[in-house]
Amino acid sequence: MLEGKVVIVTGSGGGIGRDMALAMAQQGAKVVVNDIGTSTTGEGHDDGPAQKVVNEIKAAGGDAVANTDTVSDANAAAKIVQCALDSFGKLDGIVNNAGILRDRFFHKMSVDEWDAVIKVHLYGSFYVARAAANHFKEQESGAMVHMTSTSGLIGNLGQANYSAAKLGIVALSKSIALDMAKFNVRSNCISPFAWSRMIGSIPTDTPEQQARVDKLKQMTPNKIAPLAVYLLSEQAQDVNAQVFAVRNNEIFLMSQPRPLRSVHQGEGWTPEDIASHAMPALKSSFVPMERSGEVFSWDPI
């Protein structure tokens, strides 16, 4: 489905990114395997993971090149795109997958922990997409896939930085889709449920936490790859500005914010009127204060 295409997958030295890179190569794409080789907290540097995935792709008869530039710097992100152009002469699709975690309850979260996660996820997605945008505009084709999370779409404990970044990515993707549709450029999101190195940092201090992690371990990264392949293919030409979730063998189309209910008062509202009339009328439609695990409460199927 990707024969003749050139794609970039950021953060593809392991986990979900690795499986997406391998699947895209198997489907005929030439792949830029980007990974700076850090821990889940963004520390350390090693150029090994990206090259190992490239070696896997080449051993299977595919074509790929390793790139170790960081997505969290605009100039470095531009080099990732340039790597595709220099290596393969074109670029058809990107997957913004690179990420780190620095989980902390909000009242304990440091500015550095906030900045680091926002920089890699939200800024990183913008930097890579922005670097590719002019190229896609000129050739009047291109597809982007951005990885979001139910931590942002629904909510989770101890992840204010990650949740804010991941919901921001949804809005970024929607804006890209709206702005670039006239150039035949598409932008969609995937919210993955999969055991990965990042999820491996989730605490397992209580039986409940351990049970949650045990469920996640059933959902392997290779379940995400087929949807990413499809979204970058020509067969997805009419799929734009959508948010999908993949949970083991299930694919979900996720809702996007729309009005639920309204109240009107011809002479306008006072604070007292809101308290006595507006809120009681709206309250039955309030969105519950749920976490991701409470919404997706059933075992993976």
UniProtKB/TrEMBL annotation:
InterPro entries xref list: KR_dom, NAD(P)-bd_dom_sf, Peroxisomal_Beta-Oxidation, Sc_DH/Rdtase_CS, SDR_fam
A Pfam family the protein falls into: adh_short
Ketoreductase domain residues: 5-201
Top-rank taxon, per record: Bacteria
Assigned protein family: Belongs to the short-chain dehydrogenases/reductases (SDR) family.
Name of the molecule in the record: SDR family oxidoreductase
Source organism of this protein record: Comamonas piscis
